[in-house]
Description:
Helix content is 44%, strand content 16%. By secondary structure, the protein is of the alpha/beta class. The chain has two domains: 5-184, NAD(P)-binding Rossmann-like Domain (Rossmann fold, 3-Layer(aba) Sandwich), CATH 3.40.50.720; 192-288, N-(1-d-carboxylethyl)-l-norvaline Dehydrogenase, domain 2 (Orthogonal Bundle), CATH 1.10.1040.10.
Amino acid sequence: xxxxxxxxxxxxxxxxxxxxxxxxxxxxxxxxxxxxxxxxxxxxxxxxxxxxxxxxxxxxxxxxxxxxxxxxxxxxxxxxxxxxxxxxxxxxxxxxxxxxxxxxxxxxxxxxxxxxxxxxxxxxxxxxxxxxxxxxxxxxxxxxxxxxxxxxxxxxxxxxxxxxxxxxxxxxxxxxxxxxxxxxxxxxxxxxxxxxxxxxxxxxxxxxxxxxxxxxxxxxxxxxxxxxxxxxxxxxxxxxxxxxxxxxxxxxxxxxxxxxxxxxxxxxxxxxxxxxxxxxxxxxxxxxxxxxxxx
Length: 295
Ligand code: CAA
């Protein structure tokens, strides 16, 4: 099945990035948010990205206008009734996700595919609120931040996901101009299972004063060709998110490498959550990383 009409629930950083990519790929995109203010903020983020593209001469005005017409907002689940695919991108709280999926299951057609963009919960945990006929059409579709730039999407199958659904999702990811990998429905999937212990280890190195934050980041950036060093990237992801992903992985595997270091807990407790609060390992001026802060 070729995905033509897609619903996105949640228009935060991830939801708006997914909506942006789908609208650019020619899909009719319906974004559902909880209230007018959140919806306006999410849509403005997407329009802002396109407007900056036009201002830089990277996007033609006609192209931008066409993409804008592909993008619609709603506050009501029934507006998503005709969608071929709905991707949920709301906060990582199982109770909220279960409510959302129960609503979606009620309003969507029988052939619609339901996906979650969760990065830390199990996809199969959503199954109990779905009708049995929907289970083969439930999967994970895990995008990376910033969605418009990162070329990977993990596709997560449960034991019930069928081959048609996986083929449709692979085709959809390709339509977005991205590459998919199949990942197991296990905590952290593939990328976070490997990435998170590395980032936590860098924090332990900072804690043990192995090197300054800047030197740790410069070492991995220039020594290994990473686009960002590990503390910079942790700030970029959000230190509260890092802590909660670490807790999920440590609960699941019990290995010390997944344990949140005490420095991470202290930074989160101090409200230094990284880019989103203007301070973490670094001070941030909006999107721009500034000097390292005392630890
Ligand atoms: N949205 C859209 N476009 C963006 C963007 C954003 N938020 N941020 C940067 N870009 C674009 C810029 O416009 C620029 O485009 P052009 O070259 O066409 O002008 C391009 O990306 C490069 O940006 P910059 O020159 O400003 O900066 P950069 O070269 O340092 O790249 C970066 C920025 C793409 C974020 C890069 O540093 C990078 O790849 N960092 C690593 C990000 C990463 O690892 N993400 C995964 C996080 S883990 C995760 O998401 C999973 C999870 O579950 C926690």
